[in-house]
Design goal:
Belongs to the ATG9 family. With 162 residues, this protein is mainly α. The protein contains seven helices and two strands, in the order ααααββααα.
């Protein structure tokens, strides 16, 4: 009966593609978590079974100490707690700044309700894909902007291309 219905076959193929996508996403997350675990164990000398006993301040202190010894961050010789915070929340900070400067269209005026802030998960995902992850994004990797994005004279061309 399944072979007779093209609609059911289409839905099964779509479900299989979705689950395959989710499986790949989970595997990528697991690899990322494994790298983080390895960094904590080898670089910061924090055993995985003892990680729950460390405060965030102790982890930051070890990270700052490691920066002094191995110079992980090439842009700064001395790393501070604020630098670590900014690095972790970099993309969130950009998004918040764009909303504060009214560059992202999240405020709408609805009849009877007045001004409303509205940002769906889909719109947020699309904006992040455009600005941070996609092939035409502003970043060349997770940590640094493309050189042409740093020049003030290239802003109009970048905005037109975006």
């Amino acid at each position: 009966r399944i072979r007779a219905s093209g609609w059911i076959i289409f839905l099964l193929v779509m479900a299989a593609a979705f689950w395959l996508y989710r499986l790949v996403k989970v595997l990528c997350s697991l690899l990322s978590y494994w790298e983080i675990r390895t960094f904590y164990i080898k670089a910061l000398n924090i055993p995985s079974e003892g990680l729950c006993n460390y405060s965030w301040q102790e982890v930051q202190a070890r990270l700052i100490s490691l920066q002094r010894r191995q110079q992980m961050c090439v842009h700064k010789r001395e790393l501070t707690e604020l630098d670590i915070y900014h690095r972790i929340l970099r993309f969130k900070n950009y998004t918040v700044a764009m909303v504060n400067k009214s560059l992202l269209p999240v405020r709408f005026r609805l009849p009877l309700l007045g001004p409303v802030v509205f940002l769906t998960q889909g719109l947020k995902y699309n904006l992040e894909l455009l600005l941070f992850w996609g092939p035409g994004s502003l970043f060349q990797n997770k940590w640094s902007l493309r050189p042409q994005c740093k020049r003030a004279g290239a802003r109009r061309e970048l905005a037109r291309r975006l």
